[in-house]
Amino acid sequence: MIPKTMRALVVENKETYEFRTDVPVPEIAEDELLLKVEAVGICAGDTKTWHGAAKFWGDENQPSWVKPPFIPGHEVIGYVVKRGANFHDKNIELNDRVAVEQIAPCGECKFCKTGRYWMCQKHDIYGFQGNVNGGMAEYMKIANTGLVYKVPTDLSIEAAILAEPYACAKHAIDRANISNEDVVVLSGAGPLGMGMIGAAKLRNPKTLIVLDLLDERLEKAKEFGADIVMNPAKEDVVQKIVDLTDGYGCDIYVEATGAPPSVVQGLKAIRKLGTFVEFSVFGAETTVDWSIIGDSKELDLLGSHLSPYCFEQVIEWIGNGKLPTEGVVTHTLPLEEWEEGFKINDKGVGSIKVMLKP
């Protein structure tokens, strides 16, 4: 029986995050779904919002993007406990275990109508806006245009919870268009970076180099398939990359840290006519000499956003082991301990992915 109220983390404003036990369970229309949340991962976007990053709350250069009050959390695994008869995906049935794509596209803008729904102009994203509340709660409503994907019930929750971040990781690697002749540098070995390692290895690059400031993450990156790992805090990684490539620089640089120095580092490490993929969400602005991109190196600079057309393949690859997951989820906490989870995720040391269970 579905209760009337539930436990949930509610963001009232930039300063007020409140765990409540009296939040109404969402009512659904005939074209929506209700999920019983099994678990939700904490994303860097969640912690950057918690810290008040301008990307989310706005500043003198950009408007506020979040719409409080809202329930955060978009890395969601749950069970369908109520299904509107007119929900658009007829393959999704009551009691299905599903993963949730982060965006609820409008279906009406020019991007949606041409199949590029992940860049929807309205851009409703679960977990940042009150009209599409997220999964840091016992129950979560899926919008009438929402996208969910079946997840095998025999897949461990520690593996299943990586479906959303790994789908985003696959899209970034797809954007890089890696060939078997490429020297690829992946900057950042967090949860998304771990997914990118697996996805990149499936493209068989000549050499995959992974950078991170934490040696424990570099050890895991090596285990997952990185050919070379480097710590920018301990060695001149730009010079080493240049030396390893006969003085040219890497062919592809994928930025997955959200740290401004990583962008500058990548522009130095990449060769002329190289491909730079920017994936991260930043907590601060980055300043670079853009003539490096144009006049000096004529780079292909590509963004990567969300996870279009990636979920089904990623869920299959997680299930059959083609995308390694062992040890990525390092902490599992009850939803009530969300603040401790955010702090662990924020610190990074001794952790990779933190998961909350309602």
UniProtKB/TrEMBL annotation:
Q: Where is the Alcohol dehydrogenase-like C-terminal domain?
A: 191-318
What are the entry keywords?
Oxidoreductase
* Gene3D superfamilies in UniProt: Medium-chain alcohol dehydrogenases, catalytic domain, NAD(P)-binding Rossmann-like Domain
Q: Which Pfam families match?
A: ADH_N, ADH_zinc_N
Instruction: Identify the domain of life.
Output: Bacteria
Gene Ontology MF terms: oxidoreductase activity
Could you identify this protein by its name?
Erythritol/L-threitol dehydrogenase
Q: What is the protein's species of origin?
A: Enterococcus avium
